[in-house]
Amino acid sequence: MNVAVPSALPAQGTITDHTVAALSAARDTVVWDRALTGFGVRVYPSGAKVYVVQARGPQGTKRITVGRHGVIGAQEARRRAALIIARIRAGDEPVPEAQKTESITVATLAQRYLREHVAVRCKPTTAAQYRLAIERYIVPALGIRSVSSLGRAQVADLQHALSDRPAMANLVVATLSRMIEQAMAWGVAGEMSNPCRSAPKYRTRRRERFLTDAEFQRLGRVLDEMEGEGRISLHAAAALRLLMLTGCRRNEILTLRWEDVRLEAQELHLTDRKTGDYSIPMPAGSVQGHAVPNLP
């Protein structure tokens, strides 16, 4: 950890709401106040900032987290810091037992993250990926641990367990990293650095291939044959034809409604949670015949 006093602080060195808001750091940095010795603010690369206290007492030096910037202000943090410093120097517990807050477990964080962040902010496909990574891999491996106890070793073990599936390993570590960042923003992770930042990604091969004209025609014939023999339902065949002819994503077709289909304009009107409404042209083949299924 780098300990420094950047030039963002005014000449008198007093930590205020204004000076803290202006602070940024490329790595974990503690900025100490010049007016109250032992009072500082820890700045994370993510932009999160927490007020801290460091003082020496009969049992040695202790560093305590006072509170998160944005949850409490600099003036309140300074008031609490002065009390904590006095308690440490007197040999008392820095924070009375009734006021202590512990880091939550990874399983508890996962539930809150899925409920309050993923369900609200993420698209269905992204939410499904996060849920898979969390419920199948992160919680079974780390669920009983407290968030603040996570270190590089735990992240490395989790990543290595998925080394035969590099894309999934990268997704799991990235998801865990976002969970920890959110826990820090919520103030439920204690004082910690995100151990996922130092985990290098596995190399993956990009897989992208388009059907040739011959393959496209053969797939169409197979769909006709399977539909005629009753080996595939009308709706499944129609959905596959729409995927072939429009280039839509799978969930865009599976969740399509009649009100989204504009036959006169020969287009599909879709909604994206992040980018808003947009339209996709429907080739003639997707409008004629039986390409459009019975939609809800």
Task: Report what the structure shows.
The chain has 296 residues and is α+β, with helices and mostly antiparallel strands. The chain has three domains: 2-99, Double Stranded RNA Binding Domain (2-Layer Sandwich), CATH 3.30.160.390; 106-198, Orthogonal Bundle (DNA polymerase, domain 1); 213-287, no CATH class. Helices cover 43% and strands 15% of the residues. The chain has helices spanning 17-22, 74-89, 106-121, 124-142, 152-161, 166-186, 213-228, 234-246, 250-254, 284-287; strands spanning 2-3, 29-32, 39-43, 49-57, 60-68, 261-262, 267-272, 276-281. The strands form two sheets. It has a five-stranded mixed β-sheet with strand order 1-2-3-4-5, with helices on one face. Strands 6-7-8 form a three-stranded antiparallel β-sheet, with no helix packed on it. It is elongated.
Give the helices and strands, then pairings:
Layout: E1 2-3, H1 17-22, E2 29-32, E3 39-43, E4 49-57, E5 60-68, H2 74-89, H3 106-121, H4 124-142, H5 152-161, H6 166-186, H7 213-228, H8 234-246, H9 250-254, E6 261-262, E7 267-272, E8 276-281, H10 284-287
Parallel strand pairs: 1-2
Antiparallel strand pairs: 2-3, 3-4, 4-5, 6-7, 7-8
Helix pairs in contact: 3-4, 4-6, 5-6, 7-8
Tell me the number of structural domains: 3
Instruction: Return the CATH class of the largest domain.
Output: Alpha Beta
Structural class: alpha+beta
Rg, please? Answer: 27 Å
Describe the oligomeric state of these chains in a short phrase: single chain
In CATH terms, what is the architecture of the largest domain?
2-Layer Sandwich
Which fold does the CATH topology of the largest domain refer to? Double Stranded RNA Binding Domain
The counted number of beta strands is 8
Please provide the ordered H/E string of secondary-structure elements: EHEEEEHHHHHHHHEEEH
Side-by-side strand order of the widest sheet: 1-2-3-4-5
What is the overall pLDDT average?
A: 82
Q: State the low-pLDDT regions, or none.
A: 1-12
What is the fourth-level CATH superfamily of the largest domain? Integrase, DNA-binding domain
Percent of residues in helices: 40-55%
Q: What is the rounded distance between the termini? A: 57 Å
Q: Indicate the proportion of strand residues.
A: 5-15%
User: How is the main sheet built?
Assistant: 5 strands, mixed
Tell the overall outline: elongated
Number of helices: 10
